[in-house]
Amino acid sequence: MKARVHVMLKNGVLDPQGEAVRHALGSLGFDGVEKVRQGKVIELELAETDEAQARDTVTAMCEKLLANTVIESYSVELV
Amino acid sequence: MKARVHVMLKNGVLDPQGEAVRHALGSLGFDGVEKVRQGKVIELELAETDEAQARDTVTAMCEKLLANTVIESYSVELV
Which PANTHER family match (chains A, B) (predicted)? Predict the structure, then answer.
């Protein structure tokens, strides 16, 4: 089973990387870019075949390793 | 209009970051993780309201700045 995890900085947390991208896009002539946030996406291939079990496992992975839950939020999607 | 861009390393390109995550998950006791690939997700807020136009603009941004198309593939999603 494949899972995809999105990890984004929480709203209100400064995102200098996103800000740098926004600035660079402006310099390249792309106008009308109001906001940019950059995050991580992690694709996992799991041996687990049960959907509920897989979701629980991936959520535990996020809490323990993949996301810093103080400043980041995550979402789990099974594909 | 909001757009979300996924940038992943192309298949066949080594992903040491993903490999490190896989290894760390194993060390934490998560068995059955067969493969991990890590990429970037970039969320953009655009002033543009026309969907086709927004997609074209974001594709141009990917080609020029957001993705290194030699080793990375990207996908654009409007939300």
Answer: PHOSPHORIBOSYLFORMYLGLYCINAMIDINE SYNTHASE SUBUNIT PURS (PTHR34696)
Domain tally, chain A: 1
Among chain B residues, the shortest Cα distance to A67 is held by B21
Which pLDDT tens digits describe chain A residue by residue (79 residues)? Answer: 999 999 999 999 999 999 999 999 999 999 999 999 999 999 999 999 999 999 999 999 999 999 999 999 999 999 9
ipTM of the complex: 0.91
Residue for token pair 């066949």: B12
Residue among B38, B57, B64 whose CB faces A42 most closely? B38
Q: Report the CATH number that the domain containing residue A41 is assigned in CATH.
A: 3.30.1280.10
For residue B52, what are the domain limits? 2-78
Q: Are the C-beta atoms of B48 and B2 separated by less than 8 Å?
A: no
User: Phi-psi region for residue A67, left (φ > 0), alpha (ψ -120 to 50) or beta?
Assistant: beta
Sign of CA dihedral B60, B61, B65, B68: negative
User: Which residues does residue A42 pair with via DSSP β-bridges, in sequence order?
Assistant: A5, B38
**Which residue intervals of A1-79 are DSSP H helices?**
16-27, 51-61
Within 20-39 of B, beta carbons closer than 8 Å to A belong to 21, 24-25, 28, 30-39
